Amino acid sequence: MLAAVTAAAFAVAAVAALVLAGRGRVHDFELPVSTRALPATGQAKRAPGDEPNDRAAHAAASRHLHLDGEDRREVAGAKRARDYSLRLALERTAATRTLSGQEDHDAARREPAPPPQRFASDPLPTGERVDLVGVRWQGRPRAVWLRARLGERGWTRWARVDAEESEGPDPQASEVVRNTQHSLPVWVGGADAVQVSTDRPLRAARLHLVVVRSRGIAALASAVVKRAGAAVAAVGRLFSGGTAHADAQPQIVPREEWARDECKPRKPPEYGTVKGAVIHHTVSLNDYSRTEAPDVVLAICQYHVNSNKWNDIGYNFLVDRYGRIYEGRAGGIDKAVVGAHAQGYNSQTTGIAQLGTFTTTPQTDAALRATAALIRWKLPLHGAPTFGSVTLTSAGGSENRYPAGTPVTVERITGHRDLDKTSCPGDALDAQLARLRELVGRIVPDPTQVAAQPTLTLDRPRSPLAFGRTATVTGRLATTNGTGIGQARVVVEYRRGSRWRALARAVTASDGSWRASWRATRSLTVRARASLANGEGVGPTTPIALRVRARLTVALPRSRVLYPGTVLRLRGSIAPTSVRPRLVLLEARGSRRVRLTVLALRTSRRGRFAVALRAPRRSGRYVLYVSASAAGLAWTRTPLTTLTVVRGGGGGTLAPAG
After folding, report:
1. DSSP 8-state secondary structure symbol assigned to residue 303
2. How far apart are the first and last CA of the chain?
3. Which residues are CB-neighbours of 545 under 8 A, at least 6 positions away?
4. What sign for the dihedral angle of Cα 97, 99, 105, 111?
5. Which helix (H) or strand (E) holds 388?
């Protein structure tokens, strides 16, 4: 036993030294991308860098490289592709590595079919071997393809890498970057050149490249890890008393091991709730080794933070094909950290990404079992059962299947495609979700074991409000077991364009309740967020609309019976004074009301107005009211006033009393 412990300790120390030596080279950089139009005839489908003998070169390269069949999609006149399954998977020889499935092996031997591209860049040398690449540009989404050159092995096939907004922050999140599009990150594992092709020119486009792998020591590290694993397993069997409970916390690789200081969050985490689990795939190669898997996680994190400008990696957890679970977004694996993985649902779910592409190739049984163990622990920890359905509230978004505010009922363990407009997690993995739910089982949370997570509520205020009145919103900050959290700072924010700005502030009472007020001058969409004493953030809450309307008053004569031609005088006031009211007179004809007169009323500097209206010559029933509307204010009107015109002497004047 002592020899095993010694071997394990030595192996762990050696691996740590190797990781430290390799991680010192982790970095990312960018290159500008400029595309030019291809010839309209003859060579329209030949991108710069494709020489006449490229067909043979492609065939030779395909013995080592391939993409999923998505790159053969016909795009002429087609809608924007929803299945972004990429991507660059390497076929290794028997002496190095085999593919994840025979299906991929056969695909590698088919003749590549370049997409019908209209614009393309020149091949862009990267200056060093890079492991992950993506494209960022400004403006609207475009159809984008990418290929990479892996040294002497040649070019990969073209892969479609369009922007995927469904995997990202909620629309109201502070980490949303407006008017900027990002492709999905592509793991290329050692490319020395990249080429981009698009259906239309890209504005301000840049390649974002990440270098993470510790080349030259990967084989040694793999051997050391294997020996260490065997030694540790031997020691573990000596002390193990049996298998763990189904709802015990599984072993999770912490951020300190795969990220260290190479991918730091931009901002402190925010917390929401966990009502269900959303399953994703990362559309990276499936045949990565054990030592490469942490590098893939790190590369994705660097791309999300440095290219997408998100606060941190989008997923809450990641699982590799060997069954290892990685901590994703920072903030605590036992807490309801708000991620950026399912647009419109991040604050209500935990996102679990499977490393690889599972459009046609299924995930391994080891990965499914690890994911099941994670869900059995994670959901009950937050008071949610592991079975049945759950109703989430959509926060909207351009790639959301449901408008903001819509109740959406899905399986508690669901695929990303059930919530957003995407094919994620791939057809093969989506078909495995039933098996995953079976592995998870039916677990009801134990109230005594539920983690005390902070939650913030925002009560819907009375609406609409009159202009200039005091708007007040209330809420409560408490743990999931109902205990109030006092002395926390609450900020009420309003949306202005694409950004959220502070509107009012409050401090929670000892029972967690809070109240914030401001002067209502326009209709707003508001939300609240809180900061705990330890600096952690809670929220934001679901945005709510607060309508404000002009404050309108009108004084009318007491008499509602008029003779034809009688002059009716009325007066009133309006705030704000910039709004111009309108007087509307309708004639009641049976069940219908016909508009007769619309008068725009002039107001004084104080917002006062007066008008004289002559009664119609024809007897009958009429309806009168004054309305007002303006940008930023809800439409409003005075109560309907019914006037009756009767035959008689005619003439005269009626004015308000006083």
Report:
1. I
2. 103
3. 463, 523, 524, 525
4. negative
5. none
C-alpha distance from residue 114 to each of 42, 160, 479, 642 (Å): 15, 10, 55, 73
The most distant pair of C-alpha atoms in the chain lies apart, rounded to whole Å, by: 120
Token readout for 439 is 């592995």
Say if CB 146 and CB 194 are below 8 A apart.
yes
What pLDDT is stored for residue 488 in this prediction? 94
Give the count of beta carbons closer than 10 Å to the beta carbon of residue 132: 27
Task: Say how far residue 490 (Cα) sits from the centre of its chain.
Answer: 24
Give the integer Cα–Cα distance in Å for 416 and 281.
Answer: 9
Phi-psi region of 388 (alpha: psi -120 to 50; beta: other; left: phi over 0): left
Q: Where are the domains of the chain?
A: 246-449, 454-548, 551-654
The predicted structure's pLDDT at residue 179? 66
Whole-Å CA distances, 481 to 386, 446, 450, 451: 19, 12, 8, 8
| CA nearest neighbour of 630 among 650, 607, 612, 597 | 607
* 3-state secondary structure (DSSP) of residue 331: coil
Which residues, 6+ apart, have CB-to-CB distance to 53 below 8 Å? none
Q: CA-to-CA distance for 344 and 168, rounded, in angstroms?
A: 9
Cα–Cα nearest to 503, from 477, 529, 485? 529
Instruction: Give 492-502 pLDDT, tens digit per residue.
Output: 999 887 678 89
Please give the sequence-ordered ranges of beta strands (E in DSSP) within 246-333, or none if there are none: 252-253, 276-281, 317-319, 325-327
Fold topology of 246-449:
Lysozyme-like (3.40.80)
Run of H or E including 103: helix 102-107
In angstroms, the CA 303 to CA 480 distance is 34
8-state DSSP, 183: B
Task: State whether residue 301 is helix, strand or coil.
Answer: helix
What gap in Å lies between CA 299 and CA 288, rounded to an integer? 13
Overall CATH class of domain 551-654: mainly beta
* CATH topology identical between 246-449 and 454-548: no
Q: Rounded mean pLDDT of 162-176?
A: 73
Q: Quick one: pLDDT at residue 178?
A: 67
CATH annotation of 454-548: 2.60.40.10
Say if residue 48 is preceded by a cis peptide, omega within 30 of 0.
no
To 5 degrees, how large is the angle CA 245–CA 249–CA 250? 90
Could you tell me which residues come within 8 angstroms of residue 530 by beta carbon, excluding any fewer than 6 positions away?
Answer: 454, 456, 477, 488, 489, 490, 491, 508, 537, 538, 539
Pairing of strands 561-562, 641-645: parallel
The encoded tokens of residue 615 equal 């009664």
pTM: predicted TM-score of the whole model, two decimal places: 0.65
Pull the structure tokens for residue 599.
């008068």
d(CA 161, CA 117): 13
Query: Which tokens hold the place of 602?
Result: 């002039």
Query: Beta strand 465-466 with 548-549: parallel, antiparallel or unpaired?
Result: parallel
Length of the chain: 658
Provide mean pLDDT across the span 315-335: 95
**3 state SS of 229:** helix
Distances from the Cα of 22 to the Cα of 212, 291, 335, angstroms: 8, 12, 31
CB–CB of 573/610 below 8 Å?
Answer: no
